[in-house]
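ARCHIVE CARD
Drawer: 12
Card no.: 0347
Subject: one protein chain, sequence and derived structure
Cross-reference: see card 0346
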Amino acid sequence: MGTEDVMALVEKGEMLPLMEEFYTIQGEGFHKGTAAYFVRIGGCDVGCHWCDVKESWNAATHPPTAIAAIVDNAATYSDTIVITGGEPLTWDMGPLTKGLKERHLNIHIETSGAYPLTGVWDWICLSPKKNKLPVGAIYEEAHELKVIVYNKHDLIFAEEQAAKTNKECILYLQPEWSVREKVTPLIVDYVMQNPKWKVSLQTHKYLNIP
């Protein structure tokens, strides 16, 4: 298959730039502690300076992979599938979620919301970034809002984002890993004063698992 043919399939969401896929324990947010199969899609232009998977940004470095192969691998390991990135909504998620749903799998997405929502999801974790704000109706669709806190000003941003979500959305503040010792006490104090929020930790890093 020629390069142009492959790229046409990528544009349709029938192939995706796959960075990695692995079976592990969800470490963050509402589903922490749940066994899940993670599919990390390459490509992201949001550009968070503290991103811990910057190698995901350049989609060209990750091989376009047929969604049938992704679905087959995922279905082998778990009934909970987490699509992450990079920024997965850079691409059309419709074909992938259709294939996963045909296997009766629970499908979660972790996204900044910087691109329009595509696909059918059982759980949407919206983690907005200042660099490139969410677009479209994702605020209304999100099941959880997870704001990464790097400094105290992020708490203001968190409130601005929470004001846009639906009333059922669960609100999380999560310390950015590299400054966790500094910002975790700040988050704890804030949540105690504003109990609509919950604390999210990257428990998988404490457990030393992917």
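Annotation on reverse: Residues 42 and 55 are 8 Å apart (CA to CA). The chain has a mean pLDDT of 96.
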